[in-house]
Amino acid sequence: MRFLTSLGGAAALGLVLSSQAFALDEIKFATNWLAQAEHGGFYQAVADGTYEKYGLKVEIVQGGPQAASRALMLAGKVEFYMAGNMLQPLNALAEDIPVVEVAAIFQKDPQVLIAHPDAGLEKFEDLAKLPTIFMGTDGFASYFQWMKSAYPGFKDEQYKPYAFNPGPFLADKQSAQQGYITSEPFAIETEGGFKPKLFLLADYGFETYSTLIEGRKDYVEANKDLTQRFVDASIEGWYNYLYGDNTAANELIKKDNPEMTDDQIAFSIETMKSFGLVESGEALEKGIGCMTDEKQQAFYDSMVKAGVVKAGIDIKSIYTTEFVCKGVGMNLKK
């Protein structure tokens, strides 16, 4: 009996040690907006077990109008944050906020200017002829300043505040409106009953990376293996979301954001593919998430020229290519 008891104790100890050996590293990842297809690869990696395959238990903390997602990361409440584009880390550097971008899921920023199809606009610079462009204050302070620098003819008088309502644009055929190419055009088609003219800023020189995976510098430096696993698993998630069965991921998205519809999700996925938001440039050869020094420098130089950011910044301190451009997950593309 004593022998059997000892065997039972040894077996129990073995189970404990086994469970400890295979314990998953827990990560919280905060997005910068409500759940949507533009976050799909991260939800896919949760839904299909890719994160677990990489030894991770990942909780997605969705953002929203009142969410302070980046503040949560800086306070150590979440490990990684989804930054919008490279202007955020550039501004963080100017304010001595210690962040670093470790992957760029979108090769192209989804920012778009939307116009009426019968307004006689064929080229991007034709938008300068319009008396009105509806945009937010952030857009006016960033990409509109770049537009004025890169395409003479745009002027401040065109700016009208955008209230995230397509009504004023729909009522004025001689106007344009800001938006994300994966979202606002769908709403305009639905409400206006026509396909709008789309000018994706990335295709005309506004070449910033977007949907970035950002971490605190000290955390990334101290947890390189974990960071690499999170980046690799997220990249695989994106390939599976775009080319595999994404049903379970979309259900998780709709659970987090009940206002999201199947039609909107389908539109967003098709748009991400057709405009090469995730796969274009270096990502076609080196995989989703890839960043290059050349593209980072070119965008920074264009923002300095436009007066959006200061000259003399060491931009290599706010991103690293250590974790990307390795072809991870490319075999999953069907």
TrEMBL record:
Query: SsuA/THI5-like domain: which residues?
Result: 37-239
- Top-level taxonomic group: Bacteria
Q: Which InterPro entries does its entry note?
A: NMT1/THI5, SsuA/THI5
Q: What SUPFAM superfamilies does UniProt report for this protein, alphabetically? A: Periplasmic binding protein-like II
Transcription regulation: present as a keyword of the record?
no
- Cited Pfam families: NMT1
**Keyword entries, A-Z:** Signal
- Key word Cytoplasm present: no
* Signal peptide residue numbers: 1-23
Entry-linked PANTHER family: 4-AMINO-5-HYDROXYMETHYL-2-METHYLPYRIMIDINE PHOSPHATE SYNTHASE THI11-RELATED, THIAMINE BIOSYNTHESIS PROTEIN HI_0357-RELATED
UniProt name for this protein: ABC transporter substrate-binding protein
What is the organism of origin for this protein?
Answer: Pannonibacter anstelovis
